[in-house]
Specification:
- The protein is an alpha/beta fold.
- It has a single domain (18-125), classed as 3-Layer(aba) Sandwich (Glutaredoxin).
- The protein contains six helices and five strands; from the N terminus they run ααβαβαβαββα.
- It has a five-stranded mixed beta sheet, sandwiched between helices.
- β2, α4 (53-65) and β3 (73-78) form a beta-alpha-beta unit.
- The longest helix has 13 residues, at 53-65.
């Protein structure tokens, strides 16, 4: 394994099974579901660029710290394949597009969003 892969990870590591049961966000219609769902249980949207090592590091860090199973519903957006969904997220939830980016949706509104190295599972607990 190269030094680069040790530091930033590799695409192969990204395909390893996550302990988070992600729901893939692939369709604009999912945003209506997310809005409705967030009235019962907060929703996290993780916007990820599959070509970006910073995004891969943030995702891996978030997944390693995640202990919110049953407390939130986690959605995963591959923004390179679904840029239209990413753009609509920015409009609908009134956030500036970032990558990687994490949004916490509750009662149909984005109550917290962050990006890059500030993505941290522990911080979400403060909003629950």
């Amino acid at each position: 394994m190269s030094l680069f892969n040790k530091i930033f990870g590799s695409a192969e590591e990204e395909n390893k099974e996550s302990k988070i049961r992600w729901i893939l966000l692939t369709d604009l219609g999912h945003l209506k579901e997310i809005t409705e769902e967030s009235n019962n249980l907060p929703v996290v949207i993780f916007k990820h660029s599959t070509r970006c090592s910073v995004s891969r590091m943030a995702l891996r860090h978030f997944e390693n710290e995640f202990d919110l199973d049953g407390k939130i519903t986690p959605y995963f957006l591959d923004l390179l394949n679904h840029r239209d969904v990413s753009n609509e997220i920015a409009t609908k939830f009134e956030v500036v597009h970032q990558s990687p980016q994490l949004l916490l949706i509750s009662s149909g509104k984005c109550i917290y969003n962050t990006s890059h190295s500030d993505i941290d599972a522990a911080t979400i607990k403060e909003y629950l």
